[in-house]
Amino acid sequence: MNSLVPLPVVLPLLVTGLKLAIGARLHRFQRLISVVVLTAVLVLSVILMVEADRTGPLVVHLGDFAPPLGVTLVADRLAGLMLTVSSAVTLLVLLYSLGQGMADRDDESPLGVFHPAYLVLVAGVSCTFLAGDLVNLYVGFEIMLVASYVLLTIGGTEPRVRAGATYVIISLFSSMLFLVAIAMTYAACGTVNFGQLAVRLQDIPLGARTLLEAMLLTVFSIKAAVFPLSAWLPDSYPTTPAPVTAVFAGLLTKVGVYSMLRTQTLLFPGHRLGDLLLLAALASMIVGVLGAVAQTDLKRVLSFTLISHIGYMVFGIGLATRAGLGGAIVYVVHHITVVTTLFLVAGLIERRGGTTELTRLGGLARSAPLLAVLFFVPAMNLGGIPPLSGFLGKLELLRAGAQQGGGWAWTLVGASVLTSLLTLYVMAKVWNLAFWRAAPPGQLAEGAVLEESENDDEGDDETTRPEPAGRAAPATLSGRAVTKTTSRLPLTMTLATAAAVALGLSYTVLGGPLTSFTDRSAGELLARTPYIEAVLHR
What we know:
mainly alpha
């Protein structure tokens, strides 16, 4: 089974080369091989997760070079679980994007760029989850950065380029800081391999170890959008197409959270910065949810709630107990799926109503009842309504905080409850404005969705009309506005979103096995020995 560990990284990269050779030709073949390779990655991820749970961490030293010379990839319980959830989500988002392209008949969409960039992003995410050393973790981040900049700016519109430039500048700053931290770690310990660092870091002076911990936490906090290092996120995500925004919001910030989980437990056990993490968790929860309350655009509302709920995960990491880490892992799994689903729904709302500005929406519960259900279920899940997975994750974290006791823990327990209530308020506001109230004057006719005419240049007898004042038409992957009305939401996009909703509900049905698995994962993280022995004695 060890030989399967590199495949979630290697397969997308190999197929990317094939896609670049194909270029923009053979659209159907482009779509087919994308779906096939991501399905294969999902199957491999499930196999690795099950095998790691059964036998312990799976390790491969590429080129058969032992540490510290070679590149090490490790699939333990946590990495296997993260790979499985991320693979399922990226597959569903890909199907959604294919449905969007087919519905728009968007022959100018840069498929020759989008599909390779998307697969490179998947490879980068897999690389970070499997990385067994700091350098390989850095490489995974950089692979994601290159792919994400392409996806953020696809179509070349001014808002996308501007948002992409902000994202890249912040990411490059965190990358430079990461390189400095890697260099300092190597100078202090003579290695960057996680297994060796777990042993050698305990022998260096406490001040140096604390400095390295602080630098790595800063890097990962930027990636995870932990307040106050989250200012880049609300302006970067809302300008992109719905599939890109969904996978970014669901996955990329969780890569930063995963890196914090991995390094804090393996390299810095009993860390001295736990109170600082709890303070950051508190600030992220409160500032993020208050920012969401103040927004009137659905994508910005979701972006601020994303920052807020990152605080729950940092809360569990800051507690550094088995219960706290288990709750954080449950919440990561839940949040990846639910936030991705909500951004996919936001894309459908934009198609149906022509905008995500809540003050210009209304009446969707009557005119699009299926869309209302697709929004309501993950919205209540995000708010933590029992027995959904959001409630399970929050309950685990609240229980861990109560068990730990102390001023900081109880403060975070109270902040978690308050944030959950305010999240429910925000979701209720969105429901009331977009779905429950009557459609405002100028709203598109019932059953309409904005789309471009197929034969505009040939005098098609279907009438088109300009956009209502102040309303931006939803954009395709190529950045073009769509302007023709049709009566239904695209079937493939709707089915992909429904599948994402079902995936989120499955965590409730499988709540017992899920929490049991995450508890074992947390125990393995705190034990450290299984990981170290698997890496050093394979």
